[in-house]
Amino acid sequence: MAKVLVIDDEPSIATLVAEIIEGFGHEVCTAFNGLQGLDLIKQNNFDLIISDIMMPHLTGLELFNFVRSNTRLADTPFVLMSAVAHLSKLEGPRQPEAFLVKPFDITRIDEIVQKFLPEPEENQLYNPPIPLSFPFKENFNHSYSSREYGETS
Question: Per DSSP, what are the bridge partners of residue 49?
């Protein structure tokens, strides 16, 4: 099971990306601004970092440069994302492994996961419990006669 960090100042996007990656059986941490992301990066070893570019306090580009300049982190695959497509063309020798243009197709995240993360063992796959929306007999609303439903006691 790989460990992934998703950083985005839009909680709905961070949560969506995290849920997709968790569905592949990987552990995901989320941060909602660059400083939270930096704290998590300093405290953990991640197998993949996905970060929005434009965020308050610390941008995704600043995080990317921090990761690339740190010998412990330099080889960590880094994916940048932004709603501004022209930002995908970074100047300089350091380039992220991939770029997500928002709004993105969910299959693009699938491609990134498959490219940069190992396949989890079968017993590590994420299988969320299926919520049951119908009552079980012990929780059945008995305000209706059971004869109406053909039940016998």
Answer: 5, 78
Within a 10 A sphere around the Cβ of 135, how many other Cβ atoms?
9
Q: What is the pTM of this model?
A: 0.76
d(CA 9, CA 128): 26
pLDDT digits (tens, 9 = 90+) for 92-139: 667 899 999 888 888 999 999 999 998 876 644 444 544 444 444 454
Compute the distance between CA of residue 62 and CA of residue 64 in angstroms, rounded to an integer.
5
**Tokens standing for 95?**
């380039």
Domains (range + CATH), the chain = 3-149 (3.40.50.2300)
> Do the beta carbons of residue 59 and residue 14 sit within 8 Å?
no
